[in-house]
From TrEMBL:
Gene3D superfamilies: P-loop containing nucleotide triphosphate hydrolases
Stated family: Belongs to the ABC transporter superfamily.
NCBIfam families the UniProt entry points to: oligo_HPY (TIGR01727)
Chief location of this protein within or outside the cell: membrane
Organism name: Isoptericola hypogeus
Molecular function as annotated in GO: ATP binding
Residue intervals of the ABC transporter domain: 5-259
SUPFAM superfamilies assigned to the protein according to its UniProt record, in alphabetical order: P-loop containing nucleoside triphosphate hydrolases
Record membrane topology: Peripheral membrane protein
Protein name: ABC transporter ATP-binding protein
Pfam families, per database record: ABC_tran, oligo_HPY
Bias (Pro residues) ranges: 333-341
Amino acid sequence: GEPVLEIRDLRVDYGFGADPTHVLRGVDLTLHRGEVLGLAGESGCGKSTLAYAATRLLPPPGLITGGEVWLTDREGRRADVLGLTDAELRAARWRDVAIVFQGAMSSLNPVFRIGRQLADGIRAHRPDLSRADLEARSAELLEMVGISADRLRAYPHQLSGGMRQRVMIAMALALEPQVLLMDEPTTALDVVMQRQILEQITELRDRLGFSVVLITHDVSLLVEVADRIAIMYAGEIVEEAAAHDVYRRPRHPYAHGLLGSFPPLHGPRRELAGIPGAPPDLQRLGPGCPFAPRCPHAMDVCGRVRPELGAPRTGEAGRAVACHLHDDGPSGPGGPLPPEL
Ligand code: SF4
Ligand code: MG
């Protein structure tokens, strides 16, 4: 499909003054129509910041310092989200791009019934709808996410955590957005419920044709539902490819560590073993590869030159890696790759 969301060289700093922290350090990411793009990485790598920045919902002291976020609406018009006026932005939000935040289910108002909250959400964007239309649409949305319409009369506390999260997803889909951003949408739920919800999202995607960015620290979920996977480290994308390629053969040493300690696809789940070494201190990154202090393959060049995201020298189509081992340019090492990469 054609691109619906194109993030180019997006940069975000936290904190003002002389010494801000560079939290996004030039992110490039493309979401195509109808695709589920999984975005994975350890907590603190900038995944959530990316979602907030791309929708201009970044709270202070976060500051977008550069880049472009091109969004294609349903009529095929492209606009840079970072250049929209506030009014244009309000119109685009939910209609073109909707978000399900981490812990969204706790943002339901405990004193109002589910039906009223859904109807209020729809009415904010569709003041033309009659009360009966709002009710019908609310019922339809609820059933779309697998909840019986008679639950419109329920209060949030009468629903399970999984159901509340589905209600938030129904709200996000209310205006049939082109792009759905989901930040750890199922993290608070048990594994069975997580899988059910993600399966439902892919079914809805097949039916309604929207595109999804699914952000998670749990790579095992992505392997099951994502078409493509992008791995983030220290505020940048270090590898991006078709999900099965990343899973079968991660080529960036960090991606390899993240996936190598990873349970078999259909075997029992276990905690990730993790990657030796401390997560990066974004205040103290040197000029080179941010993964170098933890990388078993670090070379001299890695401490000096930051690797750029690009096609690996193995020449695989549709894969991009930011690692000198995979460079075939002047900074590349030449010679054979480590066998596991
Ligand atoms: Fe390791 Fe060097 Fe590749 Fe960074 S560029 S991941 S330090 S080999
Ligand atoms: Mg997060």
